[in-house]
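Lecture 7 notes: from sequence to structure.

We start with a single chain of 450 residues. Read the sequence below before looking at the structure.
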Amino acid sequence: MSIWQTLEIAPTRDESEIRRAYARRLKVCRPDRDPAGYQALREAFDEAKQWASNDLVFVEDEILLTSEPEPEPEPEPEEHDAVVSLLPPEPVETLPETTVFYSESDIQALASQLVATEMTGIIRLTQLWSAIADRGSLGQQQRFHQDLASALAEEPGLTEGLLERVAGMLEWRLEDYDNSHIIPQHIQYALQNQLRETELARARRQMDIDEKHGSILNRIALRLMRSERQTVPFWLRLVPGAITRLSRQVNEILYYYPEMASELNPTLLAFLQQPRMALSWQGIFLLGFWYVVFNGVLKLSEVSTAVGAVAVAIVLFYLYVSDAIMMGLESRPKLLGRFLVAECLFSVGVILLFFGGLMGAAALSVPATGHGPLALVAVIYMLLVMIVFWAAWPKNVPLIRKPGIVMSRIFSSPWGMMVWLNFAWFSLLWVVIYCVLCTVVFAELLKPFS
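Now the structure, written as tokens:
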């Protein structure tokens, strides 16, 4: 195959036509997709340029350099030569100058247009790239890719969507493992840094909006996070859910935008890193739930006030007191260790009384014959009790803490059910049913102590 067949043009000495043919064929024979075709195209392009600028002749698809012909002897001048010599010399064909498609200010204006008004910028980019791809050299095309990428990397407000659209149009393939032959690595890093700055600016604007127009808890949390207070106000502990909301927002910011850690109040960050006792909606809900349960227990059964008070104290211990004691003894490891041992032994006894009482009540309800509908109900009931115990048994915690955590989960299960139902309207119906069930169960458990 001759070089002209490769370039798909007729033999010519016009270098501009050779370059245009090369640019057209380069879209088909890309170096990353067709290396062999690109190599053949490149060799044909070089040979065609050499033929255009030198004395070359073709012999059966081969190019041969010809030696300069010996000058023929000039004929002796005749009388009419004087007239011929007065004619102007024939024009000498010169190579066209390299076309300049854009300036540095033009490419920067294009990048600004893309960020400010994406659709208008895309139209301008399409027009400019079409001109460069049709009439520009390979070097000009490569330089355009790098100049535009560098300009976008310096443009504030660059978004990931815009970069993906431009990269798709120009086939930058930024997601490839090694595409540095199109966009050098240092420009890619600059693009990623600009995208990150855009994300941070968007996050700061959203925080400003939430601080002015968000919910009350959001406004309180954001103002505290971005303030310069040297102390944390005490009333923060008295607002239900305030510390929980504040901790969640701080954790989200530090997880998604760790660069903004220096913009948050260091005193508040140190406060949130330590466990603190504070009012919460969970604590208020559970306090009301168990108040209703034990108020019903005292009315349904003949339980004495002392027994009822002990039962209430046990519930309060696992819901509130145990955690408060452990936080208070955190700086005294010896006393904390002794408390954990005592709490473990106490919790084992409570588990035996609680689950043993439930299993014993089921066993006593089985008729003497050992079969029948009542026996089936008792067996199902005992299976449910074992499932509850298995679900409450914690994993991946020290053994000394497991008995206490079991009872803590049992007594906080009403709130867990609300969370599991995502606080839907019908979750209130299930809370009422669960409250009645707990009232009946505790009334039966406390009967032997009446």
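Residues 55-70, 77-88, 91-97 have pLDDT under 50 and may be disordered. Keep this in mind for problem set 3.
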